[in-house]
Amino acid sequence: MTEDIRVAVVGAGLMGTDHIRRITTRTTGAVIAAIVEPDRNRAAAAAALAPGASVRTRFDEALELDSIDAVIIATPAAFHEPVIFPALDAGIAILCEKPLTDDSESALRILDAEQRLSRPHIQVGFMRRFDAEYQQLKALIDSGDAGALLALHCAHRNPSAPPSATTAGMIIDSVAHELDIVPWLAGSPLASIEVRFPRRNSLAADNLRDPQLILLETESGVLADVEMSVNIQFGYQVRTEGVFERGVAEIGRPSGLAQWRAGSFTTAEHATFETRFAGAYDVEVQRWIDATRRGQVDGPNAWDGYLVAVAAEAGVLAQTTGSRVEIKTVPKPAFYGAPLSATAEAQ
Ligand code: ISE
Questions:
Q1: How far, in Å, from the CA of 204 to the mean position of ligand 1?
Q2: Domains in the chain, number
Q3: Could you report the per-residue pLDDT of 196-242, keeping only the tens digit for each?
Q4: Mutate to test the pocket of ligand 1, among 126, 131, 177 (most ligand atoms within 8 A of CB)
Q5: Statement to judge: residues 47 and 106 lie in one domain
């Protein structure tokens, strides 16, 4: 393909707008051909970033009228399926923001529909896999230079939660990242999940059990503890420490200008995931564009999205039982390539 691919962005909220800005100013090989957004103000603000793009209220209009080659789905998860099915029918490339869906049944419906095509078309927006520091940690784990990976300590901290946040949603929408990245780092699928609630943050809405402590175990026996906080005020922070046989390694520390002044040491922390993972999003979208032009998917696919949906469901159950819940998946279809480890889907 020599011409730029024509992309429709469905949903012009925070992430959709961020991707529109990215494609118009930082990536190459793609143009925004259509913006699908029913809210007029949002649509107008997004359209101002992408001169020449059509503005539509429905995805089928964009499919019919804008000659699109690909779609970025940036709506809330409950609205992913109604865009994914017609996009698959049209045979176009899909970058779907995480989570793929908010339940495993709908994820399975998507896998079934995708397998009617000759190859995978869906990439899921687990952008951490493209982050430079996560890539370094993964390379260290894979090299074996520090010995085997034994455990991970993960902290996932958001400054404040929107009023729509729920206790289950903290697993489905936020811990979703760790449900993807922990097995990716460890090179082994998740086997179980346990969720406990520490003392409640009084700054959280009354309905919210925040923070949460999550314990994940991989089939290979790596244990990952995750502190998920969504009202921690000071900033946005995602830190991961790997414990190895011969040492430890950490990613996610604040970087940039450090100051020693007036008796204190300071360095700025991120306020939002848009800046913390800006580089990762750029790489993710550029690689998605490049792969789309080659007719491939080069990143977490719909199968990975399904695995996260299953693990999140187990996590929501674990919130209510307070005990360890096993994560059980259907066997991996050959369509999605080799399983993560030999034992991945053996049971
Ligand atoms: C948000 O949707 C994200 O994906 C962020 O990375 C995550 O930190 C946040 O908790 C989610 O709500």
A1: 16
A2: 2
A3: 999 999 999 999 999 999 999 999 999 999 999 999 999 999 999 99
A4: 177
A5: yes
Question: Is there a domain that residue 332 lies in?
Answer: yes
Q: Which atom of ligand 1 is least distant from the CA of 170?
A: 10
Q: Is 130 in the pocket of ligand 1 (CB under 6 A)?
A: no
Q: Looking at the CA of residue 174, tell me the nearest atom of ligand 1.
A: 10
- Which residues 6+ apart lie within 8 Å of 89 measured at CB? none
Asked whether residue 134 falls in the same domain as residue 244, the answer is yes
Range of the structural domain that residue 270 is part of:
130-278+307-336
- Write down the pTM of the prediction: 0.96
Residue closest via CA to ligand 1's atom 10 equals: 174
Whether residue 174 has its Cβ less than 6 Å from ligand 1: yes
Cα 273 to ligand 1 centre (Å): 7
Dihedral (CA of 337, 338, 340, 343) sign: positive
User: pLDDT digit string (tens) for 38-92?
Assistant: 999 999 999 999 999 999 999 999 999 999 999 999 999 999 999 999 999 999 9
For atom 4 of ligand 1, the residue with the nearest CA is 174
Distance 145 CA to ligand 1 centre (A): 32
248 and 110 part of one domain: no
Determine the distance separating the centroid of ligand 1 and the alpha carbon of 174, expressed in angstroms. Answer: 5
User: Considering Cα of 98, then 273, then 72, then 168, what sign does the dihedral take?
Assistant: positive
> Residue 90 corresponds to which tokens in the numbers above?
């049209």
Do 214 and 243 sit in the same domain of this protein? yes
Q: Which residue has the tokens 């007036």?
A: 262
In sign, the C-alpha dihedral spanning 83, 120, 297, 132 is positive
Tell me, yes or no, whether 286 and 204 share the same domain. no
Question: Residue 230 belongs to a domain with what CATH number?
Answer: 3.30.360.10
Is residue 173 lining ligand 1, measured as CB closer than 6 Å?
Answer: yes
**CB-based contacts of 345: which residues, under 8 Å, 6+ apart?**
189, 329, 330, 331, 332, 339
pLDDT category, 2, cuts 50, 70, 90? confident
